[in-house]
Amino acid sequence: MTYHPKSDFIATMIERGFLADCTDYQGLDDALISGVQTAYIGYDATAQSLHVGHLMNIMVLRWLQKTGHKPITLMGGGTTKVGDPSFRSDERPLLGPEQIDANIAGMKQVFSKYLSYDDSETGALMLNNAEWLDSLNYLDFLRDIGRHFSVNRMLSFESVKSRLDREQSLSFLEFNYMILQAYDFLELNRRYGCVLQMGGSDQWGNIVNGIDLTRRVLDHEIYGLTTPLLTTSDGRKMGKSQGGAIWLNGDMLSPYEFWQFWRNTTDADVGRFLKIFTELPVDECDRMGALQGSEINEAKIRLANEVTTLLHGAEAAATAEATAREVFEKGGVGGDLPTLTLSASELGDGMSIVQLIVKSGLAKSGKEAKRLIAENGAKLDDAPLTDAGLMIDAGALSSPIKLSAGKKRHALVQLG
After folding, report:
1. Which DSSP helix (H) or strand (E) runs through 380?
2. Quick one: pLDDT at residue 198?
């Protein structure tokens, strides 16, 4: 990209690899150097925790605040009732208000680790679009807002087109989503002077709609900026592992497992991930990303420590690293491994090793656990596990046992 920014924020976005596209580089850059600007990212409350897939845009909000501007985290208490159809093949299951509120409460825990919510000029705001969407009068909304939208144009957006091209049904409920999201931008501009919406590149159509609507209704100049959809070097979507989503809430994924996710980064991704997910200087990220052999492993540990420190604190990162070194280098039993504690009544006369592998979370089903054993991927106390019919009784659990799936996933089983 040839644009040379004057503002710290856009310079950081370009330098660290956060920028996919912008509706008006020059206009946004000029606005950012003219004083404190307010920007937002919207989050639908579809789960109790955010996951690693959200982390890139949370870091964007963090950099926005660090470079002297005001971030808004907009919770979709209203839009979650509709569901974003962007690039989905089916309609989202609809959630009730209690579940949506519980999800928002869970997500708030994470944002406060990355952003300062205070009364200062750059203090972050946590808002909920239910505040203006819940009280909308349908006929007024159609007349005042709906008339500004061209159905022909909405059908041309990639997120809708891809669904229709596959002849998959798109309900009228979902079709309204992009109008509601555009209306969010209009309301945030009207109420809070917000001039910038950011999001993943799949949100481009929704963002442009909001800019057009705000220009038409309020005649205000506002902007959109998107981040690239992040995939790992082997083409997989960032944030998904064999075990499911990498959650950011500590009660849904332990700090140790979160640390391990980053420690297991592919060599080719280390430099790029250091730039996006840590605050280390860019030249240091490039230097570490270029390391080879055993040295790149130390760079991965640095990556894991930096990312875990931002989310869970320095102590949790240090504990995770110490546990990992103990487990991998000394073959010991780390005290911070995911632990399954069984009562004597649960164990009864004994439990099969297959059941224990499933219960400890190392396999999703008995079938998967048996396959793991058959393919020599399972270990018991660091020794290869070959007998799928092995029974573990109270005697075998007189001290904790360590189960392993492959080289990198471990769990302890103990009697409570």
Report:
1. strand 378-380
2. 98
